[in-house]
Specification:
2 domains, about 375 residues, Dihydrodipicolinate Reductase, domain 2, nine-stranded mixed β-sheet, 14 strands, 12 helices, homotetramer, alpha/beta, Rossmann fold
Chain lengths: ~375, ~375, ~375, ~375
């Protein structure tokens, strides 16, 4: 019998979306207990938020610094903290907790600026505490299965990749309605950073392509557009990709694609086969191999590789979804923290500070390219 | 701030499937704490099982009677117990806990025999404790939405219904492999009852049809078959339905449909429209209305009725699945127990002892009809 | 170079549906020339109809008897005639032409009564002219591929079959609107026969199941319903099947399933695998084999067996449809008539008088069973 | 009664693909008779080809010039000719026949070089004969329905468009196998032109986007790749689009996308709604409108606009496909030739020399952009 891991949270108060998701994810596999938090931007709101979710008010803090200070002192203090604030409020708390030796689970993208990302990156390197960035789509069993198939060489050398993440929720000026907190901060350069859709969902799309293929992006040529009048950040983008090993590709991003909900789709084409997956029906993937009929892989079914469904909870045909995929990251991170036998294997697939920083470079390069009439920008220039 | 509901469990030890599902379902929305159990068939196994899932060994009991006795005495005793044993072990523990005033969440079908079902039914009526039977597919948001659409009259008078639940996992004699506990008890008349597939998944299919339409089955003509040699219970069935108000229909059930995973599908046809839904892609449903194009309803999207997504956890396009639907029943039952404001509304949709008994009559009638060369059998004869 | 086959037609005048389909089917592969006809029920209408479609008025006859007489006399007379009248007008013209040595292509079902079917059946046997009944769905390449897969034994012994053909076009009393000729005769017992939906589309469904599996139906238990008030024939049916070799199954038929267009779907389950196909997306089929992922077969793709795509016209991914499948029967029948090398192979798969008579027994047995409270009726009793 | 239009063909001999398609398309609706041809590159092969398809050898010509000369002289000479040769052999015959007053149906792309396209364009303008370029996907009923919906304003102002045409048939060096004529000429710059995949299928994709939206492309930024070693033309491309009215978009093209057959998909996003369509399942389209559920439009169903299904041949739910769509262009062109009442309406939607020339500029601009490291190229610069 192993004790549960003690978890705290910064952000995630009343009206937030992703904080509640993190808490369900932490509960799903029963490896964490959530015991401390600084949930909102003011001490008063934090108390209200804490009360709503039954958090012990003695462990409800007015600011993240006090929280880090106090929790670090306690014998029963938190071992890990989830940072689920808007992007501009990731770096400071994350660094503060890392310095106290408290592991950090950080929402994506890593920060709102590349400078902040570099600071946080260095802080992770300088401290012993562990760092997880929640590129949650990597927790889907079939996404991991696809990674494993590519690695096995079944597709041959990868040639081209195509990804898209299409939403329609920002099709009109939601940020001005006064009732949509999500829209407000995600379209605000001060809180979100220099990119809108590209930062919010383009980041996931590229990360997923790199996760599955194991191949890194080298340069981008991007055309970002703001379709909704008066909006300050991009809400639609088309991006050309040049990756390592001569891999080519493209990404389509939109928040103004009326009728789309969370249509994230990835296709990977190699010399000998291809793979396709779509988040809105995540329990299956398509595998084509030269000389064979198209095959439909299903979650948890017989021939799925061991690594992919280690933590699959229910039999094939019973759908798992977004929350279970998110929970997978929490569950795996718990194994790292508890120093479990398979931690080396897990470490290789969990998104970390390298991913966080790389994705920030991608975001910045897209904006730079678009500002220079879509010329090719090298991520490391 | 409200305290969590104290939950115990009978069954659900090592190697079981549905017990783990119940525990995740109870955790999902943070309304329960799981604190006591009698998890396996022997005291020794129960201790091992309890240890595996971090259950306090002081609240791990050697048998359900002791558990009911002891927990009822404690001030901090459990308020509700989940019965997740094979069918023949539902009635005794359920009645025992009900008598102690402890609410019961009971897996389906209600019992292994109609006599037991009647006893349990009477016990629920005689005691004040609440009773929930986990027809978990009724927890899917779009299933509830369909119920609401039918009720609104949008489809006009219902004419015909078609349901199927097709699995392939028992396509060969899994119960003899020695490694499949599920297959063993589900094909064993002593533990499962007089029906195999019809009891296990036919029960869900009919319940779902009745749940959505609000129309009850009157009689069946059934042809049950055991395709796998040596098996003692049906593994495939085709069933004709005659329901109230002249509604006709049919159900197809199979556990030997090679390649099928958990393909549960329902179609409802009325004079003015129709609805279709399939469990393997549960976040959408099809609505046809005379004079209109086919419409695709998606979970949590704008025009979904209030009742259906009260507890929807994430935005449209992010898939929820089987566990979330299961959790919905736990969450709603918690509202009943806590006597919440909307308990009357909730009471109307939660599966209860009436459903449990009715479904047992359906199972028995199918077997009787099949034994009499598929002649029509009235459920209440 | 081979001359085109000279084709005549009985029925198919202005306002008819299936006559135009037959003519396109005959033209598709350029093996027929359409040169004579008796297109409508009166000489005047026949002339108008002939004129509309550019038929030489010298070969436009006032009645089928004159047509048979005259065409048989001519050196350049028709070699084959298509009978595309309502069911009650199949037997007489077909027998008349057969006696003249003119091959007959007959629409389904074979006739409106079992007696007529027997007379026509005998006439085919007594004459040398060839007979084709247009169970057109057997012309789909993937339907033929499925037949070939079942025959190869890949699925093992067949256990169960499920078919459905759901339409919604008769959801209200279309036959009374005065503008729907199809609805008028298909719901009229005098012209259609003793069955409505079962005769019109149930016939196709059963035939397709038998075509694919090579297994014949032995007995049925059926529940036929007329949902639309005042209609004289069934518009909805659920049918249990018992077939040779212990195969079980069921069929669902409806013309009042609001929102359905021509949803004809077939599933075949064997001991080692299964197949599924649906007419509304006919260029693919699903193949499951024990121990393998689901496979998607596509029309004309690499590993499809030779027989199935002999006459496939365009590459995979370019959809073929209903007209191409219909044309396949015409094309194959031309090979029979022209005595081509592969005529023996073709003969085995073209629907003929045996199919026609057997399906008439199926229709009659369904009605008899339903009239006797769904008791099992042997087709040959 | 109207006589059939007399049709000739240049190209389309043994081993060709598209010639046979054109002939089926011409036959489908019975408006043409095919009576003359110059089918292959040498007189001998032409005779063999003519014999194979029953063409009168007296109307089988050794070269297109003789054919134009002779047919123009005859009273019963051809009225229209289909040019179905490889791209480099479009301009010369087309111009020759146009000068003789014979209408021309020309396969796409218009020519192999921009110069040739300009010559042909001028020739069409200078002569009275009609010109059709077979962008056959515009013949699909739902594609026309989408055009009509966009025009009606239902989607509001169009914002972004996304198209892709993915094939896998050139995934390895098919052009060297000696058995694939299609692969040979389509990868040969002398016969195909300066582009491979972009010319062959990129051309269709852009044309379809412009056809549906009525909005023209202004400039492109393209990244073309040749993945198969030794191939001379692009086999994969990602292209950014800037169109009139501030519309943005992207196109993905591939002939090396293993597992893809003819996956042509188009999405159109406006301020108030969106449309999606995919060629591999062409009998349906998705329509989203703000504040409404997703709607599935089906071919020939009740509310489809008049113009779209004027020539739809069979009821909804019975699939039509590639050949029917192709036939639609032939059928409509016949109406133009016959000067029918609705010719003005038809003229507006049939692809013509303007489309042909514009698409040639698109192809050239893509290659130019790619050669200049993807910089934006204006189509008219």
């Amino acid at each position: 019998m192993v004790n549960k891991i003690k978890l705290g949270m910064v952000g995630g108060g009343t009206g937030a979306f992703i904080g509640a998701v993190h808490r369900i994810a932490a509960r799903m596999d029963d490896k964490y207990e959530f015991i401390a938090g600084c949930l909102s931007s003011t001490p008063e709101k934090s108390i209200i938020s804490a009360n709503e979710i039954n958090l012990d008010l003695n462990r409800c803090y007015p600011d993240f610094k006090t929280m880090a200070e106090e929790e670090a002192k306690r014998e029963d203090g938190i071992e890990v903290v989830s940072i689920v604030t808007p992007n501009h409020m990731h770096a400071d708390p994350a660094i503060t907790f890392l310095k106290k030796g408290i592991h950090v689970i950080c929402d994506k993208p890593m920060t709102s600026t590349l400078d902040d990302a570099l600071s946080l990156y260095r802080s992770v390197k300088e401290n012993k505490a562990l760092f997880l960035i929640t590129h949650n789509y990597t927790g889907y069993p079939l996404v991991r299965e696809m990674k494993s198939i590519v690695k096995s060489g079944e597709l041959g050398k990868i040639r081209s990749v195509r990804g898209s993440y299409l939403q329609g929720w920002l099709g009109s000026k939601e940020e001005d309605t006064g009732s949509n907190k999500q829209a407000e901060w995600r379209t605000d350069p001060k809180r979100s950073g220099i990119a809108g859709g590209v930062g919010d969902i383009g980041s996931h799309t590229l990360h997923l392509i790199e996760f599955i293929t194991g191949i890194k992006l080298l340069s981008v040529a991007a055309d970002l557009t703001t379709f909704v009048k008066g909006r300050k950040l991009d809400d639609d983008a088309s991006i050309l990709l040049r990756m390592e090993n001569g891999v080519k590709g493209s990404i389509s991003i939109s928040q103004i694609a009326i009728g789309e909900e969370n249509n994230l789709s990835i296709s990977i084409y190699g010399e000998k086969g291809s793979l396709k997956w779509s988040q809105e029906n995540p329990n299956q993937a398509e595998l084509h191999k030269v000389g064979h009929h198209k095959q439909i892989l299903t979650r948890a079914s017989f021939s799925i590789s061991k690594d992919s469904f280690a933590n699959v909870r229910i039999p094939p045909g019973h759908p798992e979804g977004y929350l279970e995929a998110f929970a997978q990251l929490y569950s795996d991170f718990a194994e790292l923290i508890r120093n479990s036998k398979n931690k080396d294997k897990i470490k290789k697939i969990l998104p970390n500070e390298e991913d966080g920083l790389h994705i920030m470079k991608f975001i910045n390069s897209c904006v730079n390219s678009s500002n220079q009439n879509s010329r090719w920008i090298n991520l490391n220039s």
